[in-house]
Sequence to fold (884 residues):
Amino acid sequence: MSGIKKTSKSWTTRRDQKAVRLAKIDHLLKGKLLGNAHIIEALELLISPGDKVVLEGDNQKQASFLSKALNEVSADKINGLHMIMSSISRPEHLDIFEKGIAEKIDFSYAGAQSLRVSQMIEDETLKMGEIHTYLELYGRLFIDLIPNIALVAADKADAQGNLYTGANTEETPTIIEATAFKDGIVIVQVNELVEELPRVDIPASWIDCIVVADQPYQLEALFTRDPRHITELQILMAMMTIRGIYERHSVQSLNHGIGFNTAAIELLLPTYGEKLGLKGKICKHWALNPHPTLIPAIESGWIESVHCFGGEVGMEQYTAARPDVFFTGRDGSLRSNRAMCQVAGQYAVDAFVGSTLQIDGEGNSSTVTSGRLSGFGGAPNMGHDPRGRRHSTPAWLDMINEQHELARGRKLVVQMVETFQSGNEPVFVESLDAIKVANKQA
Amino acid sequence: MSGIKKTSKSWTTRRDQKAVRLAKIDHLLKGKLLGNAHIIEALELLISPGDKVVLEGDNQKQASFLSKALNEVSADKINGLHMIMSSISRPEHLDIFEKGIAEKIDFSYAGAQSLRVSQMIEDETLKMGEIHTYLELYGRLFIDLIPNIALVAADKADAQGNLYTGANTEETPTIIEATAFKDGIVIVQVNELVEELPRVDIPASWIDCIVVADQPYQLEALFTRDPRHITELQILMAMMTIRGIYERHSVQSLNHGIGFNTAAIELLLPTYGEKLGLKGKICKHWALNPHPTLIPAIESGWIESVHCFGGEVGMEQYTAARPDVFFTGRDGSLRSNRAMCQVAGQYAVDAFVGSTLQIDGEGNSSTVTSGRLSGFGGAPNMGHDPRGRRHSTPAWLDMINEQHELARGRKLVVQMVETFQSGNEPVFVESLDAIKVANKQA
Fold:
C-alpha cells in the first residue's frame, strides 16, 4: 500500500478570495455600509462567475432590492451563477437565467412562477438542480450547497452591522450562518439604519456588507384569508376533521397548511369544538404562522402556544400583545424561525393537515401537475411520518395499527380535498401527473 | 351553536413572572453579571417549583458549574422540576432527582449514567418523560416542552452579555432561542469575561444573567481515539465498507458514528481508497465532529467540507488552520451547530454508518439492553431514511430496488458490527432487549 500523499495546497482559499473581493469595494464602504446607488457595482465586484449564490426569497419575505440589483449586473462580468432559493417568487428570479447571469437552480417552491419555471426548463434556459423541502435545502447549505454569497433582507441594522429581523426572522439566520461561517460574503438589504436596535436577531460579526434599500423589502400577506369566502362544504369538512380526527385521536399539537379548509377548522374550535367539550383536550400547541383565523381560538383560551415559520402582515400588533402564546423577543415583537419551526413541525407534532391537487388509488398525493413546477415548500417535511421519532403522545400511539411487538406509532397526516378542485379537475386520478412530469425530465 | 367565550385572562403571565423573578436578584446583579458566590441564592430566587428547566449537558459540553449549583439549592424551596437535557452525563444530573429538586426528565442520551437511570426509574426516584433523538428534543422545545429556565455554558461573555461559544457552540443557541423568546430566563456560565469577544455567537439581548464559573465548563474529548487500538478485523471491515458500499453506490456525503469501526474507514481513505482510484469520487462532504482520524484524508485532499455538531478537544488549532474544510468564524475558530448538523445529517447526506448493540432477524437494531437506558442521541435521526426527502444523488437513486413508477431512492443506513460484542455478548439476537424493557416500563 502506498504512503499518504500530502497536498501542498492552500487551506484558506475561500478566506483569501473573500478578502480580495471585499478589498475591491473598500472604497465604496463606510464601515460595513454601502450606499445603495453603488449596489450593482458592488455586486459585480463581489460575485464571481459560477458562484453559488443563496438569494433570500421565501413565500413571504423577499430580498427584493438585491434581486433587482442582481438582475442588472453585466452578464459579461457575472454569469453562470448557481442560485439557491427557497422560493422562486419574483419575475427577476427567473430573468437572471434568461440573461445568462445565472445558469442553475436549486430550490424548494415556485408558486406564482411555477408555469414559467416549467417552460424555461423545457427551453433549456434554466438548468434544474434539485427540488427540496425547505428543511432539506437548509441542510444542504451545510453539506454540498455551501454558498459563496448570501443576499438577504432584514428590517433594521445598527452602525456596527447587527441586524433586527423581528417577526420576519424566517430563514435569514440559517442562510447567513451557512455562508458567514464558510468564508462566504453576506450582503444584507435593510429597510432602515437605526441608532439602537429593538433587539439583535443576528450579530454583526456574521455580516459583511449592509445596504439601505430604496424601499422596504417585499412582504407577502400569504396566510390572510377573508372568512367570508369559506364555503358550507368547507365548514362541514372542518367539523368532520374536528370530530373524526382531532377528537378521536386526541390531537394536541399540530401544523396546518394554508387555505380555507384548515382556516375553517381554526375558526370552528371555539364554537363547534367547545360544544363537543374539547377545549384543553385538543389543538393546544401549534407550529404555524400567525394566521388571523387563529384569533377566536386564542381569545377563547384554546391555544397554549404557537411557534411560527414566519410572520404575517397585519398580525404584528396582535402577536406582540399575546406573548404567552407566541414567541416574542425582549422588544415585544414576534420572533419566527423557519428552520426550527420546520424541525418542530416534522418531529414534535401529532398531526399535519394539508391540501393537495391529486391523489391516486393508493393514497399517494402530489401538487405537481403537467405544465407546472411548483415544488414542495414545507409540506413533505411536515407531512411525513418521521421514522427517527422516538417520543410518544396519545395521538401517535393511537395510530399503531398492527400487533407486532416492534409496532411504532405514527404521525397523523391528513389531506383535506374535495372530489373536484377548481375548474372541475378531478382530485382522484388513476396516475399522478407527477410521474409523467418526472419521466419527461429524466 | 353558542357564541365564542372570550377569556379575560392576562396574556403576559410569562413575561410578568419573569420580571418579578428578575427583580428579586436585582440587588445581586451588576448589569447582567452575577457574582459566582451568589449562584445558589440566585437560582433559588429565579426558579419556581415545577418549572421546566433545560440544562445544557450534551455528550461533550456540560454546564457543570450551574448543574452543581442546582444540586445545592434547597429542596424545600425548589422542587418537582421538569428537567430537559440532551444528555444525562454527570452524577448531579441524577442527584437532583434523589433530593426531590427535580421530578421528571425528558432527554436524549444517558451514556455513562445509563445504568443508574434505569435503576432510578425502577425505584421510582425519577419520573420518565420521553426519550428522543437530539433533533426531536429541540423540536419539542418550541412546541410542548417550552422551558421556563435555561442553564447553559459559553466560553466568554462581554460586559453587555454577548456570548462567544466558539468551537463548542453545539446546542447552546437552540436552547437559548426556545427559552429567551418565550419569556423564559436564560442563565449562562462563562469561563471568562472579556473586553471584546473574538466574535459574537449569541446576542446579548437573548441573555438574562451571566456568571463567571469558578472553573471552565466540563468538556469531554469524546471522539478522540488512539488508532493503535484499531484491530485487524476492524481494518478488514473498513476495507469492505469502502469497496462494497462507498465505491459501489458512489457515496459522496456521509455521517459516521463514533468508534473504531468508522475511525478505521476514515484512516484508510488516503491509502486503500487512493489505491482504488476513489479520490474525488467518494466521501467528499461530511456531517461529523472534527475527528482526528479525519486528518490524513483532509491532508491528502480527499475531503472538501465538514460541518460539525460540536468541537473536539485538541482539534481547535487544526480546524482553525483548515477553514476551506471546516466552518469557522471571522475570528478563525470553528463554529459548530448541533441542530443544523442534525438537520444536514438527516436530510442532506447519502449515508449514515454507525454501530449498534443488538440486531434481530429482520434487521431491526437497538442500543437498549436490559438494565441500561442509554437513550438515542442522534443516531435514529441520522440513521433513518427521511421520507420527506425530495432531492436525489447518485447513491440515493442507486438504492431504488423496485420497479414501481413511484419508487423512491433511499438513504444508505449501515450498521457495522462484529458477530459478538465485548464480553462475548451476541449481537444477532432472536428478540431485541428493547422489547422487554419497553414492556416492563409500560
Observations:
- Residues 122 and 441 of chain A are 9 Å apart (CA to CA).
